[in-house]
Amino acid sequence: MKSYAILILSLVTAWTNVAGAASSDAAPVQKLIIPASAFNPASRELRYFVAAGGLGELCTIGGSGYFLATAMLPPGAVVRSIRARVIDRNVNSFAVLSLFDQTAAAGPMLIAFTAPSRDGLAETQWIESEPLAQPVGDTTFTLHVMLSGPQVCFSAAEVLYSMP
């Protein structure tokens, strides 16, 4: 009897999930996470470090820095927005994350940025861009991180997308 109850509960749950998915017009949002260690410096002269043996925060030494990474999405994916995790310990500096379409010569498609730390104490912030007005269905993008000064560190980026 117990196995019949579990079977019936499983069927009801599966039917509810299928019915719920069919009634929703919006595709679920998925995310691609790109860690700090996947970003490369945009110039050879840049002095920086990645804490925790390459698994932690990406930080510049003594000045600003620019870093690049490639984000590859599944075919047909539609980008919705971008997010970054930033640790800010500097009242005079900030961070910017931008997403560029590699096939277009235009400027960035999406930009997310931090406000400077209010008191110089470490503030961990998730910054997120506005949603795209017209989602783009390309599959390869360039992510660009700008850290405007020391003690502003970058931990990870996320590309939020959906599959039509």
Protein architecture, described:
The chain has 164 residues and is mainly β. 13% of the residues lie in helices and 43% in strands. The protein is built from 1 helix and 11 strands. The strands form 2 sheets. Strands 1, 3, 4, 6, 9 and 11 form a 6-stranded antiparallel sheet that branches. A hairpin with an 8-residue loop joins β7 and β8 (110-113). The protein is globular.
Helical residue percent band: 10-25%
Instruction: Quickly count the helices.
Output: 1
Gross morphology is globular
Q: Tell me the span between the first and last alpha carbons.
A: 41 Å
Q: Biggest β-sheet: count, sense, barrel? A: 6 strands, antiparallel
What's the mean pLDDT score? 75
Order of helices and strands: HEEEEEEEEEEE
Model regions low in confidence, pLDDT < 50 over at least 5 residues? 1-23
Strand content: 35-45%
Helix/strand/pairing category: mainly beta
Rg: 20 Å
SS elements, strand count: 11
Structure described in brief:
With 164 residues, the protein is mostly beta strands.
Topology:
Elements: H1 2-23, E1 29-35, E2 40-41, E3 48-50, E4 58-60, E5 65-72, E6 78-88, E7 95-101, E8 110-113, E9 123-128, E10 140-147, E11 152-162
Antiparallel strand pairs: 1-11, 2-5, 3-4, 4-11, 5-10, 6-9, 6-11, 7-8, 7-10
